[in-house]
Structures are given as C-alpha cells and as structure tokens.
C-alpha cells in the first residue's frame, strides 16, 4: 500500500500505442451474429444503452400522448382507459427499461476498462442478464398486441407503475394485462440481480496491478453501492411479483383484500424496492459526475474519501426511508415521524456530494464542452430536486402534496433533470471511446440548450398544478380548477424536449458515421479507459496496466507532479 | 441564470397564491390545513434559503472558474481535499435537519393525534369505484358524493371526524382547503378531521389511482351554518318522497335492475352497490360530481352512463327514451 513510492510504469505509456482499435471484418450477417452471441462487456454495454435509448423514444412518445391529452380540460384525444395504460407503461418503461439499462450499460462498458482488466468477472452471466432484461421489455410490450388494438390499447397494463393492490387482484384487473406486467418485471428482475452480482464481483476481484480499493475511480465505488442496492431492492420486488402471480392464479391471499389479504403489505413491498431504486438510478448519475466534473475542471476530485463515505452512507440510509411514500396510508404518528427523520438524513451525505463537486470546480479552469454543460445542468437541477425532496419529506406538507402534480414534478426533476442530464453528459463524454468518433459539438449545444429550456418550461411549471390541488394519474380535469393554462405550458415544454431528443438521436447517428476521429484520449483525461484505443479491442488492453495512483494518466502526463500519494501510504 | 431561477420561483409561488381556485393548498380554511400551511411556509423559507446559497455557489464557481480565452493551457493547482472543510459542510446540514425534523414532528403529533371533542360530528366515508358513500352513524343518514358538515367556530368548536375505509380498492380523500389527504383502504379504518370556519362549498377529488374513472371521482364538501345543517339533517332523515304523479317511473325503477344497486328509503329498493338515491334531487351533481344534476344530464346518464363517465360501473339498461324520461321524472321528485 506504499502508494506514492510505486514508480509510474512504462507499460501503461505504451498501452495506447500497442493496442489496436477494434476492426471487425465480415458480412453484415456475421457482424450481427457477433453481437448476438457476444459475452464482451463493451458490446453488452453498448447494447444496453441502445436498447434503453430505443425505449426512451417509446416511453417519450407515450409521454407526448399524455401531454396532448392534458392540453385541454375534458379532452378526448385518447380514452380514459388508453390514458391509464399509457401512464402505466410510461412509468414502467422509463424506470425498468430506460433508466436501469442505461445505468447497467455504463457500468458494463466502463468498469473493466477503468479497473484495467479484460472483462467482467462473469461474462456469460453478463450476457444472460442483458438478454433477460431485453426479453422482459419485449414481454411487457407484447401486451400491446392483440385484444382491441392500440386505441383500446390491447391488454397493456393499466394499474399504475406502482400497481397498488387490490387494483391488481383478478376482481379488479381482468384479462392478462397485470400478468404481463408482473412477469416482465420478474424476468428483467433476474437480469438486474445477475448484473449487480457481476458488478460487485468485478470490482472486488478483478482489479489490475496497483489498483487498491482506494485507487479505484469513484465511478466504480458508486457502482458497488448501486449493485448492493439492486440486490437488496430488486429481490423484494421480484418476491412481490411472485406473490401477486400466486394470488392471481393459485388462490393465494397475500394482497387479496376480499379474502382477508392486505393492501398495505403490497405498498410496503413495492416501496422497499421503490425507494432504494431511486438511488440505484441516481448513484450512477453521481458516478458520471465524479468523472466528468474533475476532467473538465482540470482538477482532481475534492475529498475522495468523503465522497466514498457519503456514497456508502446514502446507500445505507436509503434502505430505511421507503415509507415516506406512504405518509397518507395511515401509519401511526411515531411511524410517520421516524420516516421523516430517516428521509431528511439522506440530505446530509447528498449535500456533502454537492459541496465536493463545487469544491472540485473551485479554482479550476472549466472547459465548457457539451459533457460539462450537462454536468452543470445536473448540479443545479439536482439541488432543486433534493430541496423539493426535503419539502416532501415533511409529512404534514406531504399529506397535501402526495400524489399531486408536485410529486410528479419532483421525481421528474430527479430522473430527468438529474439522472438523464448526467446520462447525457456521460454519453457525450464516452461516445468517442465507444465509437472512436467525437459527437458533434454544435449539435450537442443545440441539444443541451433546447433540452434545458424545455425541461424548465415543463417541470418547473408542473409543480404549481400540484399546489393547486391537481392529483396525478387523471386522464382529464375540470375546467374550473385553474389548471388549464399551466397544463398547456407544461405540454409546450414537453414538446420542446422532444425536439431536443430528435436532435440528439440525429447527432448520434450522424457522428457515429461521420464524426471527427477521436483518438484514444480526446479529453486529456486521467483514468484507464483513456489508455487504450478507441474503440477498445476485445480484452481491452494489449499489455496489462499497472497503476500507482487514482489518476494513472495524470501521473504519465505529469511525471514531476504525480497524483496525491495515498493517505494510508 | 440563478436570478432568473429565483424570479421564476417567486413568480410561480405568486401565481399559486393568486389563483383563487377552490382546491389550492395555499388557501386553507380549516385548522389542519392552516397548520400545514404555516409549516409549509417555514419549510419553503428554509429550502429557498438553501437554494439561494448553494445555487449561488454553483453559479459563482461555474462562471468564475471558466477557462479564459487567454489561458496558457497549464493545469490549475491540484487540491485533493480538506477534512476541516468536509466537517463544516457536514455539521451545517445536520443542524438544519434537526430544526426541520423537530418542527415537522411537532406538527405530525398535533394534527394526527388531536383528541376528538365530545361535540364532534362523526362520519364514515367509504370509497367505491368511482364514488363516495357517507354514513352518519349517530344521525342515521346515508348519502353519497356530497358531504355536508357543520361549520365550526372558536366559541362553539364542532369539528368533523371522518372514519375512512373502502369497499373495493384504495382511494384517497383529498379536499385541499380543509385537510391533507388520507387514503381509504379495504379492511382498514383511517382517520381524518377538519373544522371549516366559513360556510360554503369545498372541492376535491380522489387522489389515489383507483381504476378507469379515477379522474371523475370528484368530491364536494358543503360546510353548512348550524341552521342549514339542522335543516339538511332533518330532510335527509325522512323517507323517499312518494308522489303518485310519477308512479310509472317508480314502477320502472323498481322493475328494472336499478334497485339491485340503489336504495330509496321507504321503498323496496335496498341496493348497496351504488349511491343511495333517497334524496338524489337535493344534490347539486350526479355521477360523483361529473355532471350537474339537471333533468337533461340525468336522462343522458340513465340512458348511457358512458356518455358522462366512460368506464362507470353503472351499465346502460338499453331503455326506451320514454322509460328514461319516466325514471328521471321519478328521481327528480326524490327531494
């Protein structure tokens, strides 16, 4: 552990030169076959992200229909039933088949590269997990087919993405729509758990020479916590889906209130999954910020040990806050007070993270390329999302705001303003590594500014109808409630975001084919993924890297000013 | 950008206040909603303050430390952290959390554990897909969708204590100006109280997704002056009106499936599945607030409920227009 005394190895310096970019020759059929049968973590990572982007478009279209429907009171653009199916599918899709695969895709692609190793610990499990997730999504969307077509919306689930019992009991949910939902989440849940096991095993067992735990890039630390949360949170969800299916087909009575089951138990199971899930998604967003902000500020991350501690702390506390989704369900006053306190406590490590990012930028020379623009957007929006989170944790205030559009605005602030901005930042940052070509800067700025404006027009304004008493999940609203203008502004914001996404998709395709060639290290960055060719070949490194600090490429570029010696050295 | 955000936030808050809608949580009209309102102003002030300070720091750092055009390309000094600084920005949030938690806990106990005074009116509210049933056990009244309660005053406090439960799936009782929402769960009784000080109509709606017509499960609470309330109670306690002029409609009502689901006190109709219709004509709305209670709407509703509320559990009985008119005429007499 004598960190500082290990000399910067010569092997790393040559890695980029001796490692050739991947060049696959073959017919398109052979190429396709190589993707289907692959166990390579990079190909699987890319497939995760492409799969997620595809479903981002699908979920986005669902959101647009929702926003058109809410443009006017008593609108009949779609029927009540279709609307209910759409918001159920929008929520389920965006959480399970957009956000989760994006998170797993980044982890898959980056962890072995950042740790300087050839692949994940269990490459076959990795492929299995991806295909489970993918088939889960296909199973869910298969529900649209058949029945009465799209405007009757087939048999797509219509019980909300939280699927509160007993609305899911056979008495209230006839047909198979709820079964598609439950089975899709069981299938993709196994995929998620497999991936989480893989992440943990990789980080703990597969690091290159010199890569101690406290020299790992922060991204890897965050993914360890994320993976732990996935195992602890997705398992109860999967168990609950199995129980639900037993209720529906084998005469179980876990949640069947008409036979003495408990609606409350489902709510507990769901949110024991549902709240840690938020951190499953947001910790990887933090992870991306931990890589992007230092590189574009040209400074080492401020307070690495505090960042690790805060991440682990958030992970632990997040397991004890779930019932803040249930303040109105009739818990005792003591129970409510407990969950108020535990929820507010999350604000402390989260605050530490925000302060550390500011301190990282402080005194730097910030380069405003597209990844950094999205990163600053993330910081501001995540701050606001955190503060509305504190507002919602105040149980009496929550009794008013719960299930209102204020909550919808809050969690879209977290997921879009926070997580999606971070993901975009990450895509602009690592796209050159993945494809060997730069994403277009001009289109990137258009994407950023349009998306930023659309986001704020949409989700800032969305808080107000909640304060004015508009509940969520309603397919239409009364004309005399004063919600009409606000909903129209929100919809306009949503349409602007859709335009920005269209620019982004165009830019992805355009740049992947014709973008400027990137070279191995276009951002002058410091972690190991930039020490190999772009795109990296199978098995990543022609020579095994040896590292002496948290920023091996910094050491290489500044032999006279090496990265900080480890404190425990 | 930050100042723009502050202005925007102020404008939004201003807008929320200025909107004189009957469902704004910022125009409280009852003790619990007032208490929540004061607490929420305190919380908004604290979170607003945090936003200005931290947002200001982000903004300052983002602008002040941008790379300048005349930059020489050298790397800035590398600073790796400071335990003192970490400690200080840990302690301040801890203090804020302590303050917020104590203020919140106090309010939770004050509202949730408030003792029920002897003068309180007790009402049982039962959620149904997609309407509300209200029972007044001490007064032997059953009604639907429009809850009548007495106003309460400081001199003669007469709060209303609701016991909430559900006949089918989870619903949520939310009248923003009167109290925070509480869910209605099957096999479980939750509680909620309110004490409006001003007579009038307070609106709200179901706040937990409960199926196809969740959006039209509207809720109306009438706070009556003591005289109005006494008169209302007296009328509600009477049996259904018997007007021979509408005997044909009554016969039709009782020979169709109507009476399987609906009750009219004093007749052979004892159905429990749908709203009690004994005093339907005295209600302002039908279909749980989805339409005004006019003859025309009632006829449309009886002919085909989907025209007013698609997915309503009341079926269309495929009656001839003649029979629809007769039944409507009968229902219109049920004052």
Order of helices and strands of chain A: HHHHHHHHHHHHHHHH
Report the major sheet of chain A.
Answer: none
Report the end-to-end length of chain A measured between terminal Cα atoms: 6 Å
Helix and strand content put the structural class of chain A at: mainly alpha
Low-pLDDT segments, ≥5 res of chain A? 1-11
Subunit arrangement of the protein: heterodimer
Features:
heterodimer, A: 569 residues, mainly alpha, 16 helices, B: 335 residues, alpha+beta, 5-stranded mixed sheet, 3-stranded mixed sheet
Question: In short, what is this structure?
Answer:
The complex is a heterodimer of chains A (569) and B (335). Chain A is built from 16 helices and no strands. Chain A is mostly helical.
Q: What can you see in these coordinates?
A:
The complex is a heterodimer of chains A (569) and B (335). Chain A has 569 residues and is an all-alpha fold. Chain A is built from 16 helices and no strands. The longest helix of chain A has 36 residues, at 80-115. Chain B has 8 helices and 12 strands. In chain B, a hairpin with a 4-residue loop joins strand 11 and strand 12 (291-292). The longest helix of chain B has 34 residues, at 31-64. Chain B is elongated and about 95 Å long. The termini of chain B are far apart. The interface between A and B is large, with 100 and 97 residues.
Write the layout of secondary structure elements.
The complex is a heterodimer of chains A (569) and B (335).
Chain A: H1 10-18, H2 28-36, H3 41-69, H4 80-115, H5 123-142, H6 177-205, H7 218-249, H8 263-297, H9 304-318, H10 333-361, H11 370-393, H12 395-401, H13 405-435, H14 441-467, H15 484-514, H16 552-557
Chain B: H1 2-18, H2 31-64, H3 83-112, E1 121-128, E2 131-136, E3 141-144, E4 146-150, E5 160-166, E6 171-173, E7 182-184, E8 190-194, E9 200-205, E10 218-224, H4 226-236, H5 247-255, H6 258-261, E11 285-286, E12 291-292, H7 295-303, H8 321-332
Parallel strand pairs in B: 1-5, 4-10
Antiparallel strand pairs in B: 1-2, 2-3, 5-8, 6-7, 9-10, 11-12
Helix pairs in contact in B: 2-3, 5-8, 7-8
């Amino acid at each position: 552990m004598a960190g500082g005394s290990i000399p910067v190895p010569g092997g790393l310096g040559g890695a980029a030169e001796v490692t050739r970019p991947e060049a696959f020759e073959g017919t398109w059929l052979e190429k396709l076959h190589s993707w289907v049968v692959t166990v390579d973590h990079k190909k699987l990572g890319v497939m995760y992200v492409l799969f997620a982007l595809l479903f981002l478009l699908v979920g986005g279209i669902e959101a647009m229909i929702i926003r058109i429907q809410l443009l006017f009171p008593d609108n009949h653009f779609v029927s009540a039933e279709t609307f209910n199916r759409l918001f159920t599918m929008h929520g389920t899709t965006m959480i399970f088949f957009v956000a989760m695969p994006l998170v797993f895709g980044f982890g898959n692609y980056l962890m072995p590269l950042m740790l300087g190793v050839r692949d994940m610990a269990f490459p076959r499990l990795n492929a299995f997990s991806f295909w489970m997730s993918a088939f889960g999504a296909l199973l869910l969307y298969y529900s649209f087919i058949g029945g009465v077509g799209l405007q009757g919306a087939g048999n797509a689930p219509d019980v909300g993405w939280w699927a509160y019992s007993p609305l899911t009991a056979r008495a209230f949910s006839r047909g198979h729509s709820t079964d598609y939902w439950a089975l899709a989440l069981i299938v993709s849940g196994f995929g998620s758990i497999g991936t989480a096991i893989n992440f943990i095993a990789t980080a703990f067992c597969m690091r290159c020479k010199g890569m101690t735990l406290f020299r790992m890039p922060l991204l890897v630390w965050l993914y360890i916590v994320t993976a732990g949360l996935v195992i602890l949170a997705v398992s109860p969800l999967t168990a609950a889906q199995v129980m639900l299916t037993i209720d529906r087909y084998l005469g179980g009575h876990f949640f069947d209130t008409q036979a003495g089951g408990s609606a409350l138990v489902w709510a507990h199971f769901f949110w024991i999954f549902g709240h840690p899930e938020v951190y499953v998604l947001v910790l990887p967003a933090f992870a991306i910020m931990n890589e992007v902000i230092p590189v574009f500020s040209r400074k080492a991350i401020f307070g690495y040990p505090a960042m690790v501690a805060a991440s682990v702390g958030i992970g632990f506390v997040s397991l004890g806050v779930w019932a803040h989704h249930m303040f109105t369900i009739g818990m005792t006053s003591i129970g409510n007070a407990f969950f108020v306190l535990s929820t507010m406590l999350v604000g402390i490590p989260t605050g530490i993270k925000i302060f550390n990012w500011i301190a990282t930028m402080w005194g730097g020379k910030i380069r405003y390329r597209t990844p950094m623009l999205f990163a600053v957007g993330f910081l501001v929006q995540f701050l606001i999302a955190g503060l509305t989170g504190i507002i919602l944790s105040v149980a009496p205030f929550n009794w008013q705001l719960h299930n209102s559009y204020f909550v919808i605005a809050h969690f879209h602030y977290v997921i879009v303003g926070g997580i999606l901005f971070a993901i975009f930042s990450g895509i602009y940052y690592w796209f050159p590594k993945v494809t060997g070509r730069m994403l277009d800067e001009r289109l990137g700025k258009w994407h950023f500014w349009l998306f930023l404006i659309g986001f704020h027009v949409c989700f800032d304004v969305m808080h107000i109808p909640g304060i004015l008493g508009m509940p969520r999940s309603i397919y239409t609203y009364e004309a005399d409630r004063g919600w009409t203008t606000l909903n129209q502004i929100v919809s306009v914001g949503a349409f602007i975001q859709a335009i920005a996404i269209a620019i982004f998709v165009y830019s992805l395709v355009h740049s992947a084919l014709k973008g400027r060639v990137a070279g191995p290290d276009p951002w002058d960055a410091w972690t190991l993924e930039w020490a190999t060719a772009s795109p990296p070949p199978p098995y990543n490194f022609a020579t095994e890297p040896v590292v002496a600090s948290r920023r091996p490429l910094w050491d290489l570029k500044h032999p006279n000013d090496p990265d900080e010696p480890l404190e425990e050295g | 950008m930050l100042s723009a955000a502050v202005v925007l936030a102020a404008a939004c808050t201003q807008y929320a206040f200025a909107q004189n809608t009957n469902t704004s949580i910022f125009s409280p009209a009852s003790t619990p909603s007032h208490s929540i309102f004061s607490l929420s102003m305190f919380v908004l002030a604290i979170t607003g303050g945090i936003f200005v300070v931290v947002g200001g720091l982000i903004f300052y750092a983002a602008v002040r430390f941008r790379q300048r055009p005349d930059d020489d390309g050298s790397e800035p000094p590398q600073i790796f952290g400071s335990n003192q600084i970490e400690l200080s920005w840990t302690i301040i949030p801890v203090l804020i959390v302590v303050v917020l938690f104590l203020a919140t806990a106090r309010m939770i106990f004050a509202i949730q554990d408030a003792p029920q005074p002897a003068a309180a009116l007790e009402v049982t509210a039962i959620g149904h897909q997609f309407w509300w049933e209200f029972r007044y056990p001490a007064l032997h009244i059953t009604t639907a969708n429009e809850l009548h309660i007495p106003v309460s005053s400081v001199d003669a406090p007469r709060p209303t204590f609701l016991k909430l439960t559900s006949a089918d799936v989870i619903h949520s009782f939310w009248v923003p100006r009167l109290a925070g929402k509480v869910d209605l769960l099957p096999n479980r009784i939750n509680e909620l109280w309110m004490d409006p000080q001003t007579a009038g109509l307070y609106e709200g709606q179901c706040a937990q997704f409960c199926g196809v017509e969740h959006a039209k499960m509207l809720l109306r609470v009438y706070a009556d002056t003591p005289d109005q309330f006494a008169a209302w109670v007296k009328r509600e306690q009477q049996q259904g009106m018997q007007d021979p002029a509408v005997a044909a409609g009554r016969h039709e009502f009782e020979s169709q499936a109507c009476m399987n689901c609906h009750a009219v006190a004093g007749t052979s109709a004892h159905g429990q599945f749908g709203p009690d219709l004994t005093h339907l004509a005295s209600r302002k709305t039908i279909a749980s607030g989805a339409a005004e209670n006019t003859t025309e709407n009632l006829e449309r509703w009886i002919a085909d409920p989907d025209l007013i509320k698609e997915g309503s559990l009341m079926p269309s009985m495929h009656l001839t227009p003649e029979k629809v008119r007769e039944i409507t005429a009968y229902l219109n007499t049920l004052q």
